[in-house]
Amino acid sequence: MKTIVIYNSKTGFTKKYALWIAEKANADCVELDEAKKMEIENYDAIVFGGWAFGGSISKLNWFKKNISKWSNKKLIVFCVGASPAENPEIDETLPKNFSKEELEIVKWFYCPGGLDYEKMSTTSRMMMKTFLKVLKAKKDKTEMDIEQIKILSSSYDISDKKYIEPIINYLNS
Ligand SMILES: Cc1cc2nc3c(=O)[nH]c(=O)nc-3n(C[C@H](O)[C@H](O)[C@H](O)COP(=O)(O)O)c2cc1C
Q1: What is the pLDDT of residue 144?
Q2: Alpha carbon distance 51, 78 (integer Å)
Q3: Cβ of residue 115 lying under 6 Å from some atom of ligand 1
Q4: Distances from the Cα of 129 to the Cαs of 49, 76, 119, in angstroms?
Q5: What spacing in Å lies between the alpha carbon of 61 and ligand 1's midpoint?
Q6: Which residues have a Cβ under 8 Å from the Cβ of 46 and sit 6 or more positions away?
Q7: What is residue 71's predicted lDDT score, i.e. its pLDDT?
Q8: Cα torsion for 32, 34, 35, 41, to the nearest 10°?
Q9: Ligand 1 proximity of 52 Cβ (cutoff 6 Å)
Q10: What would the pLDDT profile of 10-43 be if each residue is shown by its tens digit?
């Protein structure tokens, strides 16, 4: 099966997962801008990776715009975010990025990445700072708020190769 992994990454976590998946699946791996110039129709499986922002998946619209052309292919979307894989909100939030029809042909996965404040754009850093400020200003903080403040205050990396296993299994199924 000819597979391509296409990714959009700002600080490197999604790129890292894309390379891991491509290596394991013996697939081509390209950044989204490069993919736009390619003949994607030649592939049997298309894996798209974007990073999480406010519950959305970066550049997913490009992928969704092309879905109708790719209905005969295996379609996978993986999202990389700062939340741990165990966060129950993932299962609630991520499917909302797809319509019912899209969910029938696209299989989605979540891979925990992390935060890298040094590589983040100024805008992203400002947004994170504002989010933290709001959280810190909350009057009746829950335990989860306190934990989140602690976690989000500095860079961290919770990525792990083990999270690509379900994706590889699905590709091989
Ligand atoms: C503005 C902004 C919003 C974010 N929203 C989320 C989110 O809703 N859920 C999440 O898990 N991570 C969120 N993140 C964290 C990024 O998804 C995370 O750092 C990811 O690993 C970045 O991927 P990249 O290194 O490929 O750019 C957000 C980051 C920024 C800057």
Answers
A1: 85
A2: 8
A3: yes
A4: 25, 32, 15
A5: 17
A6: 3, 4, 6, 40, 63, 70, 73, 74, 75, 76
A7: 83
A8: 180
A9: yes
A10: 999 999 999 999 999 999 999 999 999 999 999 9
Report whether residue 60 contacts ligand 1, using a CB cutoff of 6 Å: no
Phi then psi dihedrals of residue 159, to 5 deg: -70, 150
124 in contact with ligand 1, CB cutoff 6 A: yes
Mean of per-residue pLDDT scores for the chain: 95
Cα 37 to middle of ligand 1, angstroms:
26
Whether the Cβ atoms of residue 11 and residue 116 lie closer than 8 Å to each other:
yes
> CA 21 to CA 107: how far, in whole Å?
15
The reply to whether ligand 1 has any atom less than 6 angstroms from the CB of 117 is no
Q: Could you read off the pLDDT of 59-84 as tens digits, one per residue?
A: 999 999 999 899 889 999 999 999 99
Ligand 1 atom at shortest distance from the alpha carbon of 87: 11
